[in-house]
Amino acid sequence: MKISLNWLKQYVNLDGVSTDEIKRAVTFLGFEVEGVASTGLPPLQNVVVGEILTRTKIPNLKKDISLCTVEVGATHGGVRSIVCGAPNCDAGNRVPVALPGAVLPSGFQIALRKTYGHESQGMMCAPDELGLSGDHAGLLILPATAPIGQPINDAIPGGDTVFDIEITPNRPDALSHIGIARELAAWFRKEVCYPAIKFGGETHGTRPDILSDIKVESPEDCPLYVGIAIAGVKVGPSPAWMQERLKAIGLRPINNLVDVGNYVMLELGQPLHVFDAKKINGRKIVIRRAAEGEKLVTLDAKERVLNSRMLVIADEARPLVVAGIMGGADAGVDESTTDIVLEAAHFRPQSVRWTSKQLALASDSSYRFERGVDPHSTLEAAQRAVDLLLETAGGTVVGPSFKVGGDVPWQREIVVTPAYINEKLGFEIPAAEQRAALEALNLIIRHEEPTAGRGPAWTVSVPSYRADLDRPIDLVEEVLRVYGTEKVPAAPAVGPALVDAEDAPAVVFNRKATAYLVGQHFHECVNYTLRSAKELKTWVSDAAVNELGLLNPFVEEQSHLRPTLVMGLLESLKLNQSRGNQVTRLCETGRVFMESNGTVLECAGVAFLMTENAKERAWLTRGAPDFYAVKRHMEIIARDAGVDLGSQPLVPVTGAFWGWQEGQAAAAGELKHGWTARFGLLNLAMVRAAGIEGKVWAGMFAILPERLTAASDRRRYHNFSLQPAALRDLGLVVDAGRHAEEVRQQLLKVARACAGSAFAVESVEVFDVYQGAGLPAGKKSVAFALSFRSAERTLTDDEVNAVFARIQQDVVADGSVSVRT
Is this structure's pTM higher than 0.70? Predict the structure, then answer.
C-alpha cells in the first residue's frame, strides 16, 4: 500500500514531523515500511527557467539538431547559445536550462562544450534529466508565466514523499489514507480531520431513463448496494491536485470520472464503480449469480468464463461487472459519457476471494473486499464521491437514488480491566495512560464499573472498521502499540529447564513412524493442516464437512480441518506426476481432526501411499504394491503406537467408507477405543477423476494422544522356543459371504481354549480358499494351517492329535461352520 505524505497531511497535522519519525511510528504501530521514495524535483543548483528565442537547424547532419538562443535572465548571463536535439525546442517555449557548473541527478556535470561545430553554453532539460520521470521524448515545457531566470526548484512545485507500507491481512482498515491517518493521529496524539461531505441525498427531478430499478438477487453475497444517478456530466481531465496525488502513489490518471472512483477508494478504503448510463440495457441493475458458462470481457481485454458461484453486476441482457473485482470493457465510461450511475456496495469477502482466485483476476478493489471493507463506510464513500464528481465533472444528481439492503448491525463491546492489561503485559502501565491509548484509537470507554480488588472494569466500544478486535487480549495489544513497545522494560527471561524433559509421546510416535517409512524408501511430505470442503465431501464424509469447517476461513481452499493425511499426499503425488517426477512412495505424519458423535477430536496421524511406476525402465521389474504390502506397513506403524493390529478384526470396506475401493480395502479399530486405521486400494474412479495415473494403495492410522504413553515405546522381549512345531491343516466350510478373517479368529479362539496350558497354539493362518464343484451352493472352503509348540519339550503326535480332534469338534458346535472332509 503506497501512502502519499502530502495526501496524508490533509487528514492529520504532521507539520514538523520528519519522514524518519513517521517511518518509525508506522513501524512501531505494527506495519512494515518496505520503502520510502521521494517524488518531484530534487534540489538543483544552476538550473533556471529559460525562454527559447530562436531555433536554427544545423545543416548537413543526419540527426535533427538545432542551435537555439535562450534567454536565461541578466543574472545568469542573458542570452546563451545552446545545441539541442529535442523535437520541441521551439521558439517561445519556456524550459529548464542547466547552466555550466550544474550537476544533474544522474551525476552528469554541465560545462561549456563544443558540439556539432558550435559551442553549447548549457543544456535544456527533459523530465528524466531532472529526475522527474522516465520521459525523454522532449523538453519539459514550463508554464508561460514562469519567470525567466527563476531557479527551477521555485518554478516547479515541490515533490512528495511516498511510503510503501505492508499492511497485515487482519488490518483492512489501514488500506487507505484515512486508515493510516487514524494510526498516526493515535501515535502523535493528534486529531483526525475527515473530509467534509456536502451531499446528503438530495435529488433534482426524476430520470428513470437513466436508472429505473436496482434488484439484489443474492443478498447473502451483497448485503448492501447503493446506486446514485448523475445527469449531465462532462468527461475531461481531473484537477491537477487529484492527478498529482494519484501519480504520486503510482496510478495513472485517466479522466475525472474514473479518477474520482480511485481517489475515494484510496482515501476511505471503499471501492466504487461508475457506469455509463446509456450502456445499461433496460436501465436496470441486477446483482445476481452468473449463469454457468456466461462470458464477460473485462477491462483488461480478456474474456472471462464465469460460473454459477460468481457474483456479477448485470443489466437486463448481460453481466457488466465481476462484482468487487473488475468492470466489463463495454460498460465503462468514455469521452461520450454524459449520464452516469455511481455504485457503492458491500460484498461478502469469501465470495470475492473465491471468484478472484478462480478467474486469476485481481485488482485494488478485490484486494480490499477480500480482506473486508467496513460496511458502515459504504454510504459515506458514495456521498464523498458524489461531491467530487459534481466538483470535477459537473452534472446534477437525479432520482431515483437506490439503497438496497442495509448496514450490517454493529455493536461490539469488550470488557477489560487495567489490571488484566498489566498482567498480560508483564509490567505496569498507569490506568490513565491505558485509557489515553485506547481513546486515541477511537476505542471509547462507554462504561466503567468497580470490581472486587482488580480496579475498574471498562466496557470498551469498538468501531466497525476494527472488526479484528473481539477479545480482551486484543485490547492489550492496542494499548501496547500506542504506548510504545520500545518502552517495555528490560527483564530477565525465566523459563523451565528442559535438560531432563522428554518429548511428548505423540512426537516420539511421529518420529518413529517417519523413520520407519523413510527407511522403506518413502518420501516425507509436509502439507497444510487445512483443506477444502470439496475435498472432504469427496474423500471423507458429509459429517466431516459439517463438523470440521472453520467459522471464518481466509481462503476457500483452506476452510476445513483435515480428518486424514491422504488428501494432501494425493495432491503431492499429482504434482509430482504432472512434473514428470516418477515418485511412487509418499508419507506424512501430523495432526488430524476427526468427528465422533458431534465432538471433534485431535489425533496423531500417519499416512502413506504407494503406486506403480508404469514408466520405469529397469532391467529388473519390481513387484507391484498390493493390499498385503500396505497391511504389513500398517502393522509396524500401529505397533509403534502400542496397538497390535494383527490381532484386531478387520472390517472390509463397503460403500460406507468414502474414498476406498470396495473389496480391496479394510478398516480396523474405532475412535471410541482410541485409534482407527484404514488401508488398501483407493477408489479407482475417484483417483482417476483427480488426475492421478495408476492404482494408488494407501494407509491411514490415527490415535488419540492420550493413548500414546511412554509404555508404548517399550517392547518386551519374549523368549523363543528351540523345540520343533507340530503342524496340522484344517478345512472349514462356511457361508460364501463370510469373511475368512472372522472364521480365523473363531478358530484361533477355539484352538487356544482346547490346548489350554498344555502347549501353545502358535498361529492359525489361511492358506487356501476354494468355492466351486464339490461344495454346496452358497458355500466356500477356507483351509487353515495350525501351528502348535511347547517351549520346554517336543510335542507327541498323540497329544497334538487329541487337541486337534477337540478343536474340530468344538469349532462346529455353533453350527456356523463344518469340517471339510
Answer: no
Residues whose CB is less than 8 angstroms from the CB of residue 287 and which lie 6 or more positions away in sequence, other chains included = 214, 215, 216, 217, 218, 221, 222, 225, 311, 312, 313, 314, 323, 345, 404
> Residues 535-552, buried b or exposed e (16+ Cβ, 10 A)?
bbebbbbeebbebbeeee
From residue 575, alpha-carbon distances to 352, 358, 514, 723 in Å are 27, 19, 21, 54
Cβ(698)–Cβ(718) below 8 Å: no
In SS3 terms, 295-363 reads as EEEECCCCEEECCCCCEEEECCCCEEEECCCEEECCCCCCCCCCCEEEEEEECCHHHHHHHHHHHCCCC
| Selection from 352, 332, 367, 365 nearest residue 222 by Cα | 352
3-state class (DSSP) for residue 731: strand
* Rounded Cα–Cα distance for residues 2 and 511 (Å): 46
Identify the H or E element spanning 270: none
**H/E run at residue 698:** strand 696-703
Place of cell 517392547: 715
Q: What is the CA radius of gyration of the chain?
A: 39
What's at 540, amino acid-wise?
V
Q: Count Cα neighbours of 241 within 13 Å in the Cβ-side half-sphere.
A: 6
Give residue 46's region: left, alpha or beta (phi > 0; psi -120 to 50).
Answer: left
Residue pointed to by grid coordinates 472486587: 452
376 touches 268 (CB < 8 A): no
Contact 238, 255 (CB under 8 A): yes
Angle at which helix 177-188 crosses helix 19-28, to 10 degrees, equals 90
Mean pLDDT to the nearest integer, 312-332: 94
Query: Is 438 in contact with 431 (CB distance < 8 Å)?
Result: no
Beta-bridged to residue 789, according to DSSP, are 760
535: Cα separation from own chain's centroid: 18
Question: Can you give the pLDDT at residue 711?
Answer: 44
Q: Mind giving me the DSSP string for 121-163?
A: -SEE--GGGGTS-S--SSPPPBPTTSPTT-BHHHHS----EEE
Q: Tens of pLDDT along 423-480?
A: 999 999 999 999 999 999 999 999 999 887 778 899 999 999 999 999 999 999 999 9
660-668 and 444-450 strand pairing: unpaired
* Tens digit of each residue's pLDDT (9 = 90 or more) over 576-626: 999 888 889 999 999 999 888 778 899 999 999 999 876 666 666 677 899
Q: Which of 407, 411, 399, 436 is nearest to 421 (CA)?
A: 436
Can you tell me the distance from the alpha carbon of 138 to that of 134, in angstroms, rounded to the nearest whole number?
11
* Range from 35-49, 259-273, 465-479 carrying the lowest mean pLDDT: 35-49
Distance CA 461, CA 439 (A): 10
Q: How far apart are CA 660 and CA 679, in angstroms?
A: 8
pLDDT at 365: 96
Q: Considering only CA atoms, which of 54, 61, 62, 48 is closest in space to residue 123?
A: 48
CA-CA distance, 456 to 567, in Å (whole number)? 51
Strands (E) located in 332-491: 340-346, 396-405, 412-416, 444-450, 456-462
For 52, list phi and psi in degrees, rounded to 5: -75, 125
How far apart are the C-alpha atoms of 532 and 568, rounded to whole Å? 11
For residue 419, give the 3-state DSSP assignment: helix
Contact 338, 304 (CB under 8 A): no
User: Of 418, 413, 410, which Cα lies nearest the Cα of 437?
Assistant: 418
Residue 647 vs residue 197, higher pLDDT: 197
d(CA 144, CA 157): 15
- At 574, the pLDDT band (50, 70, 90 cuts) reads very high
**If you average pLDDT over every residue of the chain, what do you get?**
91
| pLDDT score recorded for residue 617 | 65
Q: Which amino acid is at 184?
A: L
